[in-house]
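Readers of this paper often ask what the protein records in our data store actually look like. Nothing more is needed to write down the fold, since each code stands for a local backbone conformation. Below, we set out a record of this kind in full and without editing:
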Amino acid sequence: MPFPIKVCVVCSEEFELKPDKPGFANRCPECSTPESSDPVTKLRMDADERKTASEANEARRQAMRQLLYRKDS
């Protein structure tokens, strides 16, 4: 069974859509390579933000613990 022939939406070239092709199904292998974006896209948190997030997570865990394990009286 032959692979389906698709047309790339970027460069309008025809290509075979193979099962383990990386990238997008509507782009040819040359056009579906990841674009080089800013490598530091991960958000950096300072000490105050980390502490606030940690406290919020602890409060969530405590609330879930109370909901799950409270004794019905």
